[in-house]
Amino acid sequence: MPRPSRWRLGYANASWACLAAALACLPFADLGVNVLQPGAELARLLHGVLHPDLLAVKWSSVVLTVAFAVLGVSGGALAGFALALPFARSRAVRSLCAAIRSVHELFWALLLMQVAGPSPTTGLLAIAIPYAGIFAKVFSEMIEEAELAAERVLPPGTGIVSRFAYARLPELAEPFGNYLLYRLECGLRSTLVLGFIGLPTMGFELESYFRQGHYAEAAGFVAVFYLLIGTRRLWARPATLALLLLGSVAALAWLTEPVTGTSVWAALARFLGHDVVPRPLRDAELLDGATWAALWAWLWPILRSQVAPGVLNTLVVSQLALIGMALLALALFPLTSRHFAGPLGRPLGRVLLVVIRSTPEYMAAYVLLQLLGPSMLPAVIALALHNGGIVGFLMGRHADTLALRPDAPRGIDLYAYEIVPRLYGQFLAYALYRWEIIVRESAIFGILGVRTLGYHVDAAISELRLDVAVVLIVATGALSMTIDAASRTLRRRLRVDDRPVRLSAVDVLVAETAEPACV
Question: What predicted TM-score, i.e. pTM, was given to this entire model?
Answer without folding.
Answer: 0.89
